[in-house]
Amino acid sequence: MLGGIIGDLAASTYLRNPDYFYRQLIDDKATLSEYGLSVIAFYAYLKSDIGIELERGRLFIKKFFEKSDYHSVKLSEYANAWVYNMEFRGNPSSAGMLLNRIAVNGFLNEENESTGWSAMIDESCDKEEGYARIVLSKMIRLLRQGKSKNEVYEEIDPVFKSVRHNWDWKEQNTTLCLLMRAWDCFYNSHDFGSAIHDAVRYPNSFTRQIASLVGLIAEAMYGCEYYFIKKKFAHNEHTRIDLEIPKTIYEAYSGELKSIRKDYLEKRIFFRKNDALTNVERHSFIPYNSKYDSLLLSPESYRKVLYAFYTGWEDRFGFYLDNGWMYCYRSGYLLGRFRFVKQELRFKVCDIQITGEIPNGMTFDECLKCAFCSSRIPEVR
Q1: Could you give the percent of the chain with pLDDT greater than 70?
Q2: What is the reported pTM?
Q3: Alpha carbons 23 and 15: distance in angstroms, whole number
Q4: 221: exposed, middle or buried (C-beta count within 10 Å: 0-12, 13-18, 19+)?
């Protein structure tokens, strides 16, 4: 959910100061629009104890928007009309706000896809919005489970696939078209920052709508702790930027933001690329003959390896999952990768590869040992 807020703030920065956007992603003058605010408001509603019901939800969100801090939130004229008239149909902002609320539902609800939906939409929800809400909620859950992009694409509704190939979704601003464009930005990205870059440069779109939605989807796979810049584009050689919410926004919504961040850290299933101390340079990989090749792990051991750990004095090598591969890194250097293949009830280590950035006097098996031993997996004998 932080990704949707960060995406909105990044778009705010890009529209005012593109140079600063590429250096830092967010500046301290960034403000929330209705899209980032929708994430916070709907999260607060689902976490409240007033019950999930259409009119209650609409009233809660209406009041939340009315009380928005004018220093940190700049609503469009369409959003203000939506707040005071609660009119969904024909409002250019409503589709983006609807999709963001659906995405929040996907982050908070593991199985029950309908939970909270009655408070997101009005009674006149059409077929296209119905498809969008099914696809997006499932998309978020699958990505959070560690599915690759292609695996997610294969599992989502076939109507979504037909839209991608047979409909002019790049030119229209309907709910399903916005989702298709956000997926396109995410699918062609290599990390959180590149997904946001693609979003703000996307033609024929509402920049803040797309950036916020792309941020939500990208967060589910990549995370959003840091913003990484390729060395050739880095300002003063700063290739890693800690992403922080501007002070005025944090002070206005500190309770919700602290709770969202708590969920961000506690609900993860695997360690994510943009939470790792690695980089976004291009790498060449070569096969590596490892003693861990074909190692079979139990489901619990496999789960522990995916969950991984933050690096420190004892565990200097870190691991993260990205689009079907487990990557190994240390202090900004990407060292190698491997895959897991499921075999009946166990998981086999295979396709072990290295990059050539391993420190002198060290082998990649020593890096892998850190992952397996830290996860209480017996060392291979």
Answers
A1: 89
A2: 0.93
A3: 14
A4: buried
